[in-house]
Inverse folding.
């Protein structure tokens, strides 16, 4: 089952010379197994970059990334692609569902691409937990925003990834649906033992996590355990985040 992820002195520089942007500067952070970690910080702080590097979507400039015990930097492209497919789940703000596929086929898409069959029992569990049983034959256009978000989450969970990354998963949703998605992420951690890392600008959303990692200018400036929305808001004000 999930074993978390971590970085050791991870730096990411985009461009070179005068144009170089140090998006991440020696970041050492852990996303512990079976825990829900939120990532916060001002726009441009490096939150998405951190997620992309830990998820193996972008290479590090220096430092190391581990998913479970596996260091990503030593993998060939082919093995990295396989690890991403089999051990990492993503939920992006724009759900990235394929419009011509039913909910069922969207959920099992990672496995279709990998040429493997879904574990039927696990598929049924994920669909039940996410209340999608009645919606499996619908196409995305026939689903509400919250239902589409749940299909995207099911797709991220169905491969039993070691870690799920969600980049502002509630950013586009009305507050009720957003709360539903946060409850589902929380439930995936509590009931399914999932490891979750979520970028958010919303102190209420961060209040659902077990810990909040605060980034500013590519560095970790604080880690808060057992966050509450009020404490998160105070800390964000301290960082000058107006968002
Ligand atoms: N592909 C890229 N090429 C060059 N610079 C980049 C690239 N991606 C990100 N950056 C820069 O790296 C820094 C961190 O960007 P990142 O997207 O990680 O910020 P963020 O914390 O996710 O911000 P937001 O809250 O606005 O999404 C920014 O200065 C950004 O301009
Ligand atoms: Mg971002």
């Amino acid at each position: 089952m999930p074993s978390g992820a971590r970085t050791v002195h991870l730096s990411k520089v985009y461009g070179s010379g005068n144009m170089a942007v140090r998006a991440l500067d020696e970041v050492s952070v852990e996303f512990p197994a079976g825990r829900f970690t939120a990532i916060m910080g001002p726009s441009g702080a490096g939150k998405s970059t951190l997620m992309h590097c830990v998820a193996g979507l972008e290479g590090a400039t220096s430092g190391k990334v581990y998913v479970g015990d596996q260091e990503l930097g030593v993998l060939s492209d082919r093995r990295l692609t396989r690890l991403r497919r089999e051990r990492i789940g993503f939920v992006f703000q724009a759900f990235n569902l394929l419009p011509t596929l039913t909910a069922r086929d969207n959920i099992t898409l990672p496995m279709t691409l990998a040429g493997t069959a879904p574990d039927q029992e696990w598929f049924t569990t994920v669909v039940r937990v996410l209340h999608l049983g009645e919606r499996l034959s619908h196409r995305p256009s026939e689903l509400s925003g919250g239902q589409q978000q749940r299909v995207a989450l099911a797709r991220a969970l169905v491969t039993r990834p070691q870690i799920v990354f969600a980049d502002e998963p509630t950013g586009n949703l009305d507050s009720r649906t957003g709360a539903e998605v946060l409850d589902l992420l929380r439930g995936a951690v509590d009931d399914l033992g999932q490891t979750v890392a979520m970028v958010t600008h919303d102190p209420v959303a961060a209040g659902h996590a077990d810990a909040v990692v605060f980034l500013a200018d590519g560095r970790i400036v604080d880690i808060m355990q057992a966050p509450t929305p009020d404490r998160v808001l105070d800390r964000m004000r301290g960082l000058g985040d107006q968002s």
In short: The CA atoms of residues 203 and 229 lie 5 Å apart. The chain has a mean pLDDT of 91. Residues 14-15, 21, 23, 41, 43-49 surround adenosine-5'-triphosphate (ligand 1) (CB under 6 Å). The radius of gyration is 18 Å.
